[in-house]
């Protein structure tokens, strides 16, 4: 196909996203205040707990089978590569621009975590619906596009909350410790011990799911002393003392289990992914729920209806959240430009080499639409969830809004151009 025809095919979905985003921004300004702070908070909660999981679950259940799972094995690896390479680029940017300590986690998160959710699920099916799309029949293309984009959304959610979340947490905790040391040194000229510096009492962990674990060496010494004491004590006293010590250790174990809570990995989108994959892969569940002749077909229809509300709502919220960055565009200019360059130029270019190399090695099956979405995963702007993560830790909230505004403004052009090039590349 001619380049300009591909360009207009890629441009139309991006324009739809821009129009809905602009509407969200207008609804959030003070004059209208329809999407004010309270409304955004409530809608974010609905999207996170209801609309995202149902959209992912319904699309995966309808389109994913055991055979397709085997064929799509490269997508999790591809997304992991986007995060790892983005982190390396973020570290390079931190060194070059001398990013302040409290923003380093945010910069790494923005470079690593891409918007693998609502953008692909809007752009890719919309490309299929354009006249003259390069991916064949509209119905088949749209069905496959929803399956690929839903899997991308689910995997992106898992990686963001298990990888990018801990990147931001690590640097936020480091900055919190340094601030605590500086505060104590000003209030008390006495030297601060390592234990005090590493266990600040005023620093928040930022999330109810994760807490800081105590010093391992102290726990090991405690167990060792307990073992020696139980060996050397008199037999009569040993039982009573060891019983008390055993109860103390059990309490410590229970506390440790509560602190190390892995529920952060099981977000609603992840649970929706697991349910959708089980329904799609297990033939019994598929016959029961999927298809016009399925006994519980009404359940699937209801889930699809609720899930499709996610796409316009999330896009409106993106526009509403961007308005917070309008007042601070001049701050951290070098960092903003650096993140935009890394995500909009450098990372998509690296993605071309990775995906084409995987195709040459036979890791990816010859489906142009599948190859297109793998390439698109390198070209999307930062994940919207980073705004929520920075709010959890209270580090770089204002800067995150500015970065989102700048990167999404650049992405309006870069995603169109890269999508055009990707379509020309895979057909």
UniProtKB/TrEMBL annotation:
The keyword Zinc does not apply. Pfam families: Mem_trans. It is found in: Endoplasmic reticulum membrane. InterPro entries: Mem_transp_PIN-like (IPR004776), PILS1/3/4/5/7 (IPR045033). Involved in cellular auxin homeostasis by regulating auxin metabolism. Regulates intracellular auxin accumulation at the endoplasmic reticulum and thus auxin availability for nuclear auxin signaling. Belongs to the auxin efflux carrier (TC 2.A.69.2) family. This is Protein PIN-LIKES 3-like. It comes from Vigna radiata var. radiata.
